[in-house]
């Protein structure tokens, strides 16, 4: 098998006096969708923020495309082709949908300079982005904001897309739309790392899965194998798919 696009080995993270990650080992294969599951407080969001350099790893290594990035600042990490959608989506509420996407399109100063073919593709993935193109992003519903957040992350081609709980609080119809969009993103060759609590979402999309508990990865393997093993689901997650 080829080397993973992203790999964490023995990663520890301290936030102030708190020791949150206790030696995380995680491999994200190139071109696949990897799910990071676990109970609340297991360390999933801290893992994503540590990958992005928003919190600094106190020990261990993080490699992306074979390069060590654990000591890099967040802008340099993003410039390598990694996009991150945080749990709170990070939408600029007073800007229009168009202006939110333009901020992420580094090669364009105006909307007319944005890649029109890529925009058309994004509009097909998320019709609401086109519908509300000139509306203030803060006026949109939660599901529409999530679509804008993901669209902004992919307005330029990315090697790796990292998303924290994309289905949280969304209506079932919006969740299904999001599942379809991520399936198309994966089919386009984008490598994806998702934190997710919706197990239907996880089962539909996941190629690989890693389950966290108390700041470490306690299980890693194919998502299909976890989906078929109810005893393992109960043991790891306290519930079944």
From TrEMBL:
<protein>
    <submittedName>
        <fullName>ABC transporter related</fullName>
    </submittedName>
</protein>
<dbReference type="InterPro" id="IPR003439">
    <property type="entry name" value="ABC_transporter-like_ATP-bd"/>
</dbReference>
<keyword id="KW-0067">ATP-binding</keyword>
<dbReference type="GO" id="GO:0016887">
    <property type="term" value="F:ATP hydrolysis activity"/>
</dbReference>
<comment type="similarity">
    <text>Belongs to the ABC transporter superfamily.</text>
</comment>
<dbReference type="InterPro" id="IPR003593">
    <property type="entry name" value="AAA+_ATPase"/>
</dbReference>
<keyword id="KW-1003">Cell membrane</keyword>
<dbReference type="InterPro" id="IPR052156">
    <property type="entry name" value="BCAA_Transport_ATP-bd_LivF"/>
</dbReference>
<dbReference type="InterPro" id="IPR027417">
    <property type="entry name" value="P-loop_NTPase"/>
</dbReference>
<dbReference type="GO" id="GO:0015658">
    <property type="term" value="F:branched-chain amino acid transmembrane transporter activity"/>
</dbReference>
<dbReference type="Pfam" id="PF00005">
    <property type="entry name" value="ABC_tran"/>
</dbReference>
<feature type="domain" description="ABC transporter">
    <location>
        <begin position="6"/>
        <end position="239"/>
    </location>
</feature>
<dbReference type="GO" id="GO:0015807">
    <property type="term" value="P:L-amino acid transport"/>
</dbReference>
<keyword id="KW-0547">Nucleotide-binding</keyword>
<keyword id="KW-0029">Amino-acid transport</keyword>
<keyword id="KW-0472">Membrane</keyword>
<dbReference type="InterPro" id="IPR017871">
    <property type="entry name" value="ABC_transporter-like_CS"/>
</dbReference>
<keyword id="KW-0813">Transport</keyword>
<dbReference type="GO" id="GO:0005524">
    <property type="term" value="F:ATP binding"/>
</dbReference>
């Amino acid at each position: 098998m080829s080397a993973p696009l992203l790999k964490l080995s023995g990663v520890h993270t301290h936030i102030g006096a708190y020791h949150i990650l206790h030696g995380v080992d995680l491999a994200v294969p190139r071109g696949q969708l990897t799910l990071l599951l676990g109970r609340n407080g297991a360390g999933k969001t801290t893992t994503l923020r540590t990958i992005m350099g928003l919190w600094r790893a106190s020990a261990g290594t993080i490699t992306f495309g074979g390069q060590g990035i654990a000591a890099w600042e967040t802008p340099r990490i993003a410039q390598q082709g990694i996009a991150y959608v945080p749990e709170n989506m990070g939408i600029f509420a007073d800007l229009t949908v168009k202006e939110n996407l333009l901020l992420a399109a580094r090669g364009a100063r105006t909307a007319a300079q944005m890649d029109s073919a890529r925009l058309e593709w994004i509009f097909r993935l998320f019709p609401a982005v086109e519908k509300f193109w000139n509306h203030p992003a803060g006026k949109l519903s939660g599901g529409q904001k999530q679509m804008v957040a993901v669209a902004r992350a992919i307005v330029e081609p990315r090697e790796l897309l990292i998303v924290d709980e994309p289905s949280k609080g969304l209506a079932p119809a919006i969740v299904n739309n999001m599942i379809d969009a991520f399936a198309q993103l994966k089919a386009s060759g984008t490598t994806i790392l998702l934190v997710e609590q919706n197990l239907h979402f996880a089962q539909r999309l996941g190629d690989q899965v890693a389950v966290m508990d108390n700041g470490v990865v306690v299980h890693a393997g194919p998502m299909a194998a976890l989906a078929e093993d109810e005893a393992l689901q109960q043991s790891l997650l306290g519930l079944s798919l």
